[in-house]
Each structure stands twice: as structure tokens, then as C-alpha cells.
Amino acid sequence: MEYLTSVEALRVSVGLEAYAQRDPLVQYKSKATEMFQTLLEDVRHGVISRVFTFSPRQAISVSLTREQIEAAQAAAEQAASTIAPAEENRGNPPAQKKKRRRH
């Protein structure tokens, strides 16, 4: 966001370069390029610093009982049986679509 606001400010202020007898477009391009290079350096620095300061969390082991597994399987089977009737229509050819005219 900082970069975008600074580029917007640069766009507004580049008009003053004409008073200094310099081409505003050339000045805008050069300053915008410098700002973009600075942005890339900041992003690279941020990524590298996060990589080196990263500390993984402890993994939490989850153990399920046989009853919990069976209950989950029963729920999945019930959900599959309610979806099955909707899938029966997939074998039928799709209705022909109306052709669109290009304008």
C-alpha cells in the first residue's frame, strides 16, 4: 500500500518537473523504476528475514477411537446416498444451449 500511495504522489508531483526544463515522462519513469527496485528489495528482505526466523510449531497427534471412525464412515455414506440421485442425471445428454450472437 505504501508503494502505491508513493507512486500516486509521484504521478501528481511529476508535473512540476516541467518547470525545471526536464521531461516529466522521463523523470517519472526513472523515479518509478527506483521506487519499484526499492519495493522488490524490501520484499526480498522481508521474505528472507521470515525464513530465517521461522520456528515450526509442535505437531499435535490426533488419535480416533474405533467408534469415532465408524461414526464418520456412516455419516459419509449417508451424505453419499443423498448426493447419488443428483448424479444420476449426468448420463443424460445436456440440453442444447442457445447460440449467442456477437454484436
Helicity, in percent?
Answer: 55-70%
Net shape: flat
Number of helices: 3
Strand percentage, roughly?
under 5%
End-to-end Cα distance: 40 Å
- The beta-strand count equals 0
Largest sheet: none
Radius of gyration: 30 Å
What would the average pLDDT be, to the nearest integer? 79
**Helix/strand/pairing class, anyone?**
mainly alpha
Instruction: Name the helix and strand elements from N-terminus to C-terminus, one letter apiece.
Output: HHH
Low-confidence stretches: none
Description:
- This protein is an all-alpha fold and 103 residues long.
- It has a domain at 2-52.
- It has helices at 2-13, 24-53, 66-87.
- It is flat and about 80 Å long.
- The mean pLDDT is 79.
Layout of helices and strands, plus pairs?
Layout: H1 2-13, H2 24-53, H3 66-87
Helix pairs in contact: 1-2
Features:
103 residues, mainly alpha, flat
What is the structure about, briefly put?
With 103 residues, this protein is mainly α.
